Amino acid sequence: MPAETNDRLAVALGLVAALLWSTAATAFKLTLAHLDLFQLLFWAVLTACICLAVITGVTGRWPLLRRQTRSDWLRAALLGLLNPFAYYLILFEAYSRLPAQAALALNYSWPIALMLLSVPLLGHRIRRIDVLAAAICYGGVLVVSLPGDTSPGMSIDVVGILFALGSTLVWAGYWVARAADRGDPVIGLFLGFLAALPCTAILCAIYSSLVPAEPAALAGAVWVGLFEMGVTFLVWLQALRHASSAARVALLIYVSPFLSLVFIHFVVGEPVRTATLIGLALIVGALLLQQLAPPRTTADRPA
C-alpha cells in the first residue's frame, strides 16, 4: 500500500481516537452524577475487560495469551494495580470534586510528570528545553487552579486539584514501569485490566453496591469502558502502525483537550472559564514545545 495512503488512513484513525478520547471528561462528569466512583470504576473496568477480550480474539492474539508465564501474569497484576485500579480511582475522585474542565486540564500535564519521573527511575537527563516546558506546563496548572472567574457551582477544590495532579503521577509511573515491557501492548493491557477487575469488584462491594440505584446510568460506565479504556486504545495503535512516522499522528492527540471543552460546554453545561483556556493552552503549548524540540544528543543520554 502506498505510503501516502497509509498516512491518510493513519491521520483519519488518529482523529477518530482524539474524538473518542475527547468525550471522556464529559462521560466522567455526567456518569458521576448518577453513580459513585466505585461503581463507575467497576462497571467501566468490566466493560473494558470484555472489550479487550473480544479484541484479543478478533485480532488472533489468544495464542499469545496462552504463552504468558507466571511472571508475566504477576507483572500484569502489579501494573493493573496502577492502571486501571489506582489511576482511575484517583482520577474519578478528582472529577467528582472539580469542574470537568479543570480536572481535564490538570490531567493533561501527565507527560511532564512522566519526564520528571524518568530522571530518578530511568536515569534520563533533563535538557534545558525540558526545564522550560515543565515551567510553562506547571504555570498553566497554576492558572487553572486559581479561583479567578469561577461562577456559582464552579468552585475550585484544593483536594480535588491534588487528586488530579496525583493521577498524573500514577499514570506517569505506570508508563515508566511499562518502559521495559517488550510484549504485545494489547495483551499487556488486557491482562492488567483482568487483574484489576477483582480489586474493583471488592472495593465496590465494600464501599458501595455492585448494582446501582439507577441502572440506566450504567450506559455512561459502558461508554467509559469502551471509549476511554478499550476500543480507542486499539484505534490509536492502528493509527501509529499505519503512519510512515509516528510524529505524523502524535500531534493529533493535542486536539483532544480542546474538543473536550466543546463537549463539556454544550453537553455538561459548564461555562468555559478564561483561566481554563489560558491554562490549557500553556499546558498543551509546553507539551508541543517538548515534542517538537530537536532529538536528544549523546550528551543528553545517561552513560
Keywords:
single chain; 303 residues; mainly alpha; 74% helix; disordered C terminus
Question: What does this molecule look like?
Answer:
This protein has 303 residues and is mostly helical. The protein has one domain. Helices cover 74% and strands 0% of the residues. Helix 1 packs antiparallel against helix 11. The longest helix has 28 residues, at 70-97. It is globular and about 50 Å long. The model is unreliable at 1-5 and 298-303 (pLDDT under 50).
Specify the biggest β-sheet.
none
Taken as a percent bin, the fraction of beta residues is under 5%
Radius of gyration of CA atoms, rounded to a whole number: 19 Å
**Average pLDDT, to the nearest integer?**
88
Number of helices: 14
List low-pLDDT spans.
Answer: 1-5, 298-303
- Helicity level: over 70%
What is the first-to-last residue Cα distance?
Answer: 41 Å
Strand/helix succession:
HHHHHHHHHHHHHH
The SS-based structural class is: mainly alpha
What's the number of structural domains? 1
Question: What coarse outline follows from CA principal-axis ratios?
Answer: globular
The overall strand count is: 0
Brief summary of the model shown:
This protein is 74% helix and 0% strand. With 303 residues, it is an all-alpha fold. The longest helix is centred in the N-terminal third of the chain and has 28 residues, at 70-97.
